[in-house]
Every structure is written in C-alpha cells, then in structure tokens.
Amino acid sequence: MSEFIDRVENTALVWTILSLALIGFVQVILRYVFNYSFTWFEELGRYLGVFIAFLGASIGVKTGSHFTMDLIVSRLGQPMRGVVKVFTHTLSALFFFTVAFYSWKIVGRMYGYETTSPTMQIPMYIAYLPIPVFSVFIGCRFLIRGTGFFREMRSDTGEASK
Predict the structure, then answer these.
(1) Distances (CA, A) of 113 to 101, 116, 121, 124
(2) Strand partners of residue 123
(3) Alpha-carbon gap, residue 38 to 154, rounded angstroms
(4) Which partner from 2, 43, 51, 88 sits 20 to 30 angstroms from 145, CA to CA?
(5) pTM of structure
(6) For 36, left (φ over 0), alpha (ψ -120 to 50), or beta?
(7) Residues 69-115 pLDDT 10s
(8) Angle of the 130-161 helix axis to the 40-63 helix axis, nearest 10
C-alpha cells in the first residue's frame, strides 16, 4: 500500500511540474511571439506552485532530504541522539497537524463564503485545499520517521544490553 501511495505521489508531482513548465512555456510564447496572453495562466501557475510545494515537502520528509541543522545532534551520544530525533520528528508532526487543523477551518470558511478566484472562477476552497491535505501527509510522514528512529533506538539499546 505504501508503495502505491509513493507511486501516486511521485507521478502527481512529476505531471504537475511538467504541467507548470508547459503552462509557463506557452505563456511566454503567446506573450512575446503573438503579443497575447491568457489571464488565467498566472493564477493557475500560483495554485500549481502551492500544490507542488506541499506535495514535494511530503516527499522530502519521507526521503529525509530536507535541510537539517544537526551540528549539535551529530555530536551527541547514540541514546541521546535518538531521543532528540524522536522528539523533533514528533514535534514537527504536531506542528503540521496543527497547521492542518487550522487550515481546514479556513477551507471550511471559504466553502461557506462561496468566493471564487478572480480569473479562473473556481471556488477558493479548492485553491486552499492542498494546505490541510498535504499538512496531514507531512505530519504522518514525520510520525512514521519518528517511529522508525524510536524502533532503531530501542533495538540499539536492546543489543547493547545483551
């Protein structure tokens, strides 16, 4: 199941980035060659950029490829290093679950206001939807990685006591 979710995430990210690049290319050609541009291209590009940022952040947490400042953590001994990693991943998960909670409230308000985007005329709650959805994904990814560090820490202390 996890492999299927990973494949869906990676495929969605690749096609969204390609779509954004294609939209940008078409917009440049239309503007400079034909002296014409679609007004909705810029808005769609902004919404796709938010989608890419949150989806990419989720994948980055999964792969552990986010920038970290581990000068202090790398100098700690093994049991304490694991404790700090578990703590920071749990704290990060709580942060993103909080972001998801409050952004979901904003999405609900946008749904109730029935506002639409200026040029594309799509409901604004759809534009805000990637924030709570991918914040939950990011929070779950942090919990999974934190659990992995905890298991690793327990197995290291279990082997050391034998």
Answers:
(1) 19, 9, 14, 9
(2) 116
(3) 57
(4) 51
(5) 0.82
(6) beta
(7) 777 777 777 788 888 888 999 999 999 999 999 999 999 999 999 88
(8) 10
What is the token pair recorded at 85?
């990693």
Residue closest to 108 by CA, chosen among 94, 128, 138: 128
Q: Which residue has the tokens 């700090």?
A: 84
Amino acid, res. 72? I
Q: How many domains does the chain have?
A: 1
Token output for 24 = 């940008």
In angstroms, the CA 85 to CA 70 distance is 10
Q: 10 Å Cβ neighbour count for 97?
A: 17
Contact 58, 9 (CB under 8 A): yes
Residue 39, token pair as written in the block: 């007004």
Q: pLDDT tens across 133-161, in order?
A: 999 989 999 999 899 888 888 887 665 55
Amino acid at 42: E
